[in-house]
Specification:
With 317 residues, the protein is mainly alpha-helical. The protein has a domain of 197 residues: MetI-like fold (Orthogonal Bundle), CATH 1.10.3720. It is built from 13 helices and no strands. It is globular, with a radius of gyration of 24 Å. One of its GO terms (molecular function) is dipeptide transmembrane transporter activity. It comes from Bosea thiooxidans.
Length: 317
């Protein structure tokens, strides 16, 4: 087990290094003169001011030196200051990361939590009308964009329940009920594709497990169908499920950025889009890096959990 953890940790370090290089280069390869855009198009933008701004941002140095300075500061938690507000970048991110995290976790719990019982029922009712209805619903859930579903739910809520608070964000500590009420619709919009995808995966894995010899042995011993389904088949079906949950988390982080705009949630989505529009280099780099690293770390944790669920993977590594 220790060898497996060390190997995966080394892989994680290599991946994080690659991400830092990609994020750094991606920002600098954006077309256009970022400094001129940041200063704006007015008569006060002189070549001297542009040169001074380049020097302040370190953009006048060789590319390799820029990367080394940025990486060395980032490893200490220093991502610089926001060009427009003058506040440390990490303070800007910390002020708006919680709504995104809460929305992501709420959506993940809703989608993944419902996917297990729905997938088990689809496997139990395989070939029947209920299974057909659920499968058609799952396919529909995969094809509906989250932002479109969010807009439809907003229109329906405004028409049928005008008093229902569905826009904006209230911290949980200030108003727990109001917080959950405002996150309900965006969480459903994000959770539906997750539920559709994972439930189909659970159904397939359950059907595969139900055809194994140990299931026939369990039934021959007189175990009830519910015990066979949930105690024996489900445990093996959870192995691909756990892996997919990690991938879905990355999807949620990306989808939350768009859905936040629909529901006026002041999270990382608004911060990233605003920083990109303003060419706020330090803020763009830091926010994209935080989201990407979060996705990688979640998948690393899922990989460790995968090894705990299936001991064969530990022996193989």
């Amino acid at each position: 087990m220790l060898r497996h953890l060390l190997q995966r940790s080394l892989d994680l370090v290599i991946v994080l290094f690659g991400i830092s290089v990609i994020v750094f280069l991606m920002i600098r390869l954006i077309p256009g003169d970022a400094v001129a855009i940041m200063l704006g198009a007015n008569t006060e933008v002189t070549p001297e001011r542009i040169a001074a701004m380049r020097g302040a941002l370190g953009l006048d140095r060789p590319l390799l030196e820029q990367y080394w300075v940025w990486l060395s500061h980032a490893l200490r938690g220093d991502f610089g200051t926001s060009i427009w507000t003058g506040r440390p970048v990490m303070q800007e991110i910390a002020a708006q990361i919680w709504p995104t995290l809460q929305l992501t976790l709420f959506s993940l719990a809703l989608g993944a939590g419902l996917a297990i019982p729905v997938g088990c029922l689809m496997a139990h009712w395989r070939g029947g009308r209920a299974d057909l209805v659920l499968r058609v619903g799952a396919i529909a859930g995969l094809t509906i964009p989250s932002f479109w579903l969010g807009i439809v739910m907003l229109i329906a809520t405004a028409t049928l329940a005008p008093s229902f608070a569905s826009l904006g964000y209230v911290p949980f500590g200030e108003d727990p009920l109001g917080n959950l009420q405002r996150l309900l619709l965006p969480a459903i919009a994000l959770a539906l594709p997750i539920l559709a995808n994972l439930s189909r995966l659970v159904r397939t894995a359950m059907l595969d497990a139900l055809g194994q010899d140990y299931i026939r042995t369990a039934r021959a011993k007189g175990l009830g169908e519910r015990a066979v389904l949930y105690r024996h088949a489900l445990r093996n079906a959870l192995i691909p499920f756990v892996t997919s949950v990690g991938i879905m988390t990355g999807y949620l982080l990306g989808g939350a950025i768009v859905v936040e705009q629909v529901f006026s949630i002041p999270g990382l989505g608004r911060l990233i889009l605003g920083a990109i529009a303003e060419r706020n280099y330090p803020l763009v780099q830091a926010t994209i890096l935080v989201v990407t690293v979060g996705f990688v770390l979640v998948n690393a944790l899922v990989d460790f959990a995968y090894a705990l669920i299936d001991p064969r993977l530990r022996t193989a590594s």
